[in-house]
Amino acid sequence: MGVSERYQEIQREIESLRSASRVSIIAVSKFQPQEKVVQALRAGCLHFGENRVQEGLEKFRDLGVPNRDFVLHHIGPVQSGTLRKYVGMYSYAHGVGSIASWDELKKRLEKDKWKMGIFLQVNLTGEDSKSGFAEQEIPRILAKESNLHTEFCRLEGLMTMGPSSGDPTETRRVFHQLGRIRSDYFPAGKLSMGMSGDYRIAVSEGSDFVRIGSAIFGERS
Predict the structure, then answer these.
(1) DSSP state of 123
(2) Higher pLDDT, 171 or 21
(3) CA dist., res. 188 & res. 104, Å (int)
């Protein structure tokens, strides 16, 4: 089964799980060759995710596919040294895990007049290997949610990752917890959660964006 078939199969599966509302698949194309991206694009994929900013720029700057629009998401932690490279290509950042990162990104976007949607990363597993805000920080931050928005830097929603163990019970608890935080403190926000191994749980727990790599593109060569 090729990239196109895998993408379309996952799309149909997600639609069967959540027929009442739309879930956007972010095809995580990091370390994947451009030709596989083109296959996904021709299959109808609109959203793509990269965690290495420069690699994304080089891969997506000229895909050679006429009349095919796409939306590029940065899915790794925001790093100050690469902020200027977001401009002109990336539409979303899913890894804002500190107020300092938010402020720095906001200044860059306002300076360059480039609009992006931002997801706050919340660390709900307590693992040191994962960055992000602690759960107890979120109510205080979202209480000032209207002050976070600017013309160029808008708060889109919340992002989290499941436990490294992959335990489905713990994964569901984490995803459910982020959904509860959204309901309690930011009902207008969207959720970004779920990857190749746990996107079905994420969809059932209300995710709006799922970040799927190997299940679409296959293992990296």
Answers:
(1) -
(2) 171
(3) 24
119 in Cβ contact with 144 (< 8 Å): no
- With a CB cutoff of 8 Å and minimum separation 6, the contacts of 77 are 95, 97, 101, 121, 131
In this prediction the pTM is 0.92
Q: What is the pLDDT of residues 23-69, one digit of tens each?
A: 999 999 999 999 999 999 999 999 999 999 888 888 888 776 555 68
Report the pLDDT value the prediction gives residue 20, as an integer from 0 to 100.
58
Do residues 76 and 95 make contact, with C-beta atoms less than 8 angstroms apart?
yes
Q: What angle do CA 13, 14, 19 make, to 5 degrees?
A: 110
Comparing 20 with 201, which gets the higher pLDDT? 201
CATH of the domain at 173: 3.20.20.10
Residue 201: count other Cβ atoms within 10 Å of its Cβ.
Answer: 20
The domain tally of the chain equals 1
Which residues on adjacent β-strands are paired with residue 116?
153
Q: 214: Cβ–Cβ under 8 A, 6 or more apart, which residues?
A: 196, 220
Range of the domain at 200: 3-217
**How many CB atoms within 10 Å of residue 17?**
13
Compute the C-alpha angle 94/14/161, nearest 5°: 30
* Gyration radius from the chain CA atoms: 17
In this prediction, what percent of the chain has a pLDDT beyond 70?
96
Mean pLDDT of 118-133: 92
